[in-house]
Fold this sequence. Notes:
The protein has 47 helices and 16 strands. The chain is α/β, with parallel strands linked by helices. Among the domains are: about 795-850 and about 885-915 and about 920-955 and about 965-970; about 980-1185, 3-Layer(aba) Sandwich (Rossmann fold), CATH 3.40.50.1460.
Amino acid sequence: MELTPSDDEALPRRMGNLGLSLMLRFERLNHPRDIHEAVAILRRLVGVIPDTHPDFPLHAGTLGSAMQDQFQVTGKLSDIDEGILWSKKAASLTPEDKPEHAQWLGNLGNALNVRFQHTGDLDDNAQAILAQRTAVSLIPKEDTSLPTGLNLLGLSLWSRFERTRTTSDIDQAIDALERAVRLTSDHSVDLPTFLGNLGGALACRFDHLGSRLDLSQGIVTLEKAVTITPEDSPELPALLHNLSGCLNTRYESTGQGSDVDKAISVAQKAVELSPEEHVDLPMSYTNLGSAHLARFISTANADDLDRCISSYRKATQLTSEGHPLLPERLHDLGSALHTHWRSSKCDSSLQEAVSVMKACLQLLPESHTRYPRILTDYELALFEMTSDLVHLSGGVLAAQQAVHRCPETHVSLPSKLSVLGSALCSRYVNAGNYDDINESVTALRRAVGLTHEGHSSRPTRLGELGSSLTFRFESTHEETDLSEAISLQREAVRLIHSTHPSLPGELAGLGISLMRLFEISTDKKDIIEAIEVQQKAIKLTAPDHARVAVLLHNLGVSFAKADDIDRAIDTFREAIHIIPDTHVVLCRVHKNLGNALWRRYTVKKEPEDADNCIYHYKFASNFRFNPPQPRLEAAKNWTAKLKYYLPESEEVISAFDVSVRLVTTVAGLEQTTRRRFAFLQEISGIPLDAAATALRHGRLDKAVEWLEQGRCLVALADELTRVSKALESSASESRIIRFDMTIPEKLTIEQAAKRQMDLATKWVSLLEEARAIPGFEMFLQPAPLASLCGRLPPMGFVIMLTVNEDRCDAIALSFKQEDTRHISLPRFTLSKAKQYRRILGMRLAAHDLRKRSSGEPQDLATEEPFTQESVERDAGKFRRSRTSAEDNIQQLLRGLWTDIVQPILTTLGIPKHDDSLGHAHPRIWWCPTGPLSFLPLHAAGIYEGLDSESALDYAASSYTPTVSLLTRRVRDDGPIDEDIGGLFLTNHPKAPGYPAIPGTTREVQTIYERVEGMGIRAMKAEGDALSVDDCLRYMEEFSCIHLACHGSQDASDPLRSRFRFHNGTLDLDTISRRDLKNADLAFLSACETSMGEATLPDEAVHLAAGMLAAGYRRVVGTMWSIGDKHAPDVSIDFYNYLWGHGEGGDAKFDGSLSAHALHHATQNLRHNLDNCEKSLLTWIPYVHFGY
């Protein structure tokens, strides 16, 4: 060609011959330079001849085929696009009656199908099938090109089946491929290729329908193709790696070791026969790696895993940058490295796995079909490396995205559902969210439903579903879940071949479920069977397999259940001996070994057992490689056993330090608020027990610190404003995932949760940075006692009260630390506190104190008939037919006085106040914990007889949810911005669904007229004139607010406690997220604004506390419903006192006197009533919070 002049008529023909020859040599030797040169020549050729030239269709069609070959080398879609363009041109320029027309249509269909395989565009596939059907119909039956056309048609139908899972497509594909084989001579060079494609299609139908006959026929067909293919054929390596893949599939189905051995041998031969530059060499290495990995899973032979990693590494090295299969091969390598870490706990393997998967993700757009699946593995690997729940949630989110993107009929959907279900189950185990285990069961049930009988993965998926059902049973105790779990796990075991590597895992799952069955049946045969299947699982597992330690742990638990404590202890110790130092199961094994040792100690009383028990609890509590939840379980045992066995040991202080810190961590910012409340109900007694222990050991400082930590878990931080506000906003969002939600709806919730956890991580990072600054070491941590005292109000005492099973104590804190003291209250007990709370609840229910009422029969200043019917209607669980002499409010208040308040006042030397002296009462801030949080300490006293006296005679009382919150309000008590200073008033007398409270209109109007007359900035809005958003805006524009409306507690979700307006509701959650920098006073003339939540005895979560957290310095609230008759008078007396006693006379609105103003207003009301129960319940509910 080089010697032919450019104007020679023979040049086009010679260029075409050279291009075709280079193509043929490429197809023979697979040298990329040959196809690149062929493409260059053919492009030049079609550029120098007109499309009217009689040979143009031939050269265009040849170039189209060459572009397809070049695509195999480069993986660039632009090559296949160009191939389609030239094939279309060739077909359009060739008459239909010419045999070449069918040839170009077949090539066009093949190119379109290749592009479909890489883009997923079903329209390309449809056009491919149409072109190939047309081509086949145009070829005479006796034509030797018919088998080629049938082969191409079969491949396109097969491709569509892999996308749509329509069984008729794979059936038609096999029919076409079988015809192609039948019509091909035994001596044809195309026969091995056609046999190879038919074998692959049969294996694919096996994967879909589970017929082992298809798989066996596929292997036989591929073996025949290999047998008739010459050793030097370039097609042989591809046939060999296809055969290796099918043998591997049969091994996964049957567990026959000979298949995996042969798969490795065949894959190794494919590698050896492939020249270094062969385009299929990376695929051969991938198949070899997969076969070694399958054998490793069976035998745990480390050499196989090393060879797998080596093969995968070679495959990635041989894959050029930009090749579409590079991310997939990197993923294979990363997954194998992850498996290596799981078996060896070699940290470098896990680090490399994470690095490789990260590189893989960087090569893919987020829209890529494989992106979510790879991201799932990446996040789960990071979780195993860091134990950070953020990454586990990232894995769940990515798995949900993988399921969402997968077509309902796609073959990979069951696998993706299985991954999602397992990830959700793992998060349930590590974080305890019940929604997760429900979703796990749902996903795994779908996966099982989509996996046909006979599929190699069906036993594993049955076992996964069984395990999730067992976990759900542990939470719900629904016996139907456990029964189904055992049935599924028995079926999984039955379906698995006795030599299959997955059998030990399925036996282990069945053993756990049988152990749970024994716990409810107490039938010895259940625990005996559990032990037998667990022992069998261990026997079938290689001694150095990573699974052995977990199996031993489970067996130890079963021995303990069977009361074979000595064998349980020996088994746990054997597990500890072989577990790597950083394995997460180590925490659980140490904790359960501690349990077993303690059980033996209670029988044999050998001190060594008790000492060892405490050691193992301590180890588990401090094991940093575990999430905090299981460590907290161990820490609770550690403290309990120390209190019992070594009550005087100082180690108990360290143990409680760890426990309280773990409580704070588990309930902390990585949890949603709803989950935080549920968790706090479970562990609410820990800070109280810790404080009582600290006081018994003379550690007043620790008692204060732990009580503060225990009561600050739900409170909103007002530091690090931007991050914390965003975090709490996210954490307060509902994350409940319902079964009837669509996948996109679930994804939205999961994405919000992931954002919240990311913010939590940022929060922790910011805290660490802040605490690294000199002088900020204790930033946002409980302040040391001396520092805390120095930030208290300069006058008065803060009284922290705590009660538990052992004791009741008060801690009196003062600005002068030397005046701080511990006051023991031996006459008061936890049972008495609970009794008082029950009495109070019963009496409130009997008087229908649930809503602010306008009707006189419900107003407490008038007597109301008290009947059995009314108590049963209103009292709920506090039903009684009559009130005993001991079960009334007067006796309750007397008990609080004699047992708590009077001893405190006496110890502190606070005298009865002499009103004639003209100065204000001293201040006391009550900070009660536990059930004391719901009792009216401020009204404690004797109200009968000549010796009557009460707390009101000695001091003006306030409350604070936490000492730290009070110190922040003291710190913020500076001048109010003059532009913000003023009072906003609103009343809502006719809230929908609630009794009318017309007295609120008079209340607000009277106050407003007085304010206007004094020239104080004010605004009022009644009922329909105010929206919730308007109210929030006015709260930011006015320093003080007066709300006269219905208010209520939400027992199921305290942060949804709310004020009820004509146009909607204003809840605690919304208020708590406001940033009210100039807020001064909030008067909540509503019911139940400071009741708190009975299920959170260590928390102060109510509307008044929410207003404090939002920034108000002082808040007036009510402990229960108030009568509409007297509420206006209390409000008016309150404001009259404020204006009459403020600096500068009536014109000064001084919120700092609000505690004294409320004391004055309630005393006025009290003196206008008698001391009967109803009268007491009229004025007692008014309480003051804050500074």
